[in-house]
Amino acid sequence: xxxxxxxxxxxxxxxxxxxxxxxxxxxxxxxxxxxxxxxxxxxxxxxxxxxxxxxxxxxxxxxxxxxxxxxxxxxxxxxxxxxxxxxxxxxxxxxxxxxxxxxxxxxxxxxxx
Length: 113
Hints:
It contains four helices and two strands. The chain has 113 residues and is of the alpha+beta class. The two termini are 24 Å apart.
């Protein structure tokens, strides 16, 4: 995707800035000795992607965020995962879902201008 000066570029800029701030906050938590509070165990869930069942393993925070996105969009988690699968093509679906979820939640949480 090429960067431009349109609304998508503005949303991505906000998302990236927000993620940078969150990463900085996470790093300060880690250096403060709070690393054990960040869940690292994945949860496997079965989703239907383009009509086919598949199992995806994500951390609980990602599943919660993905469910929140689906609810906000009046959609299902399966439909959102199908959309991400279409966007990522033959790439790693789990990674694509994580990136999509981070960017989308950051854009949803960004203050309106």
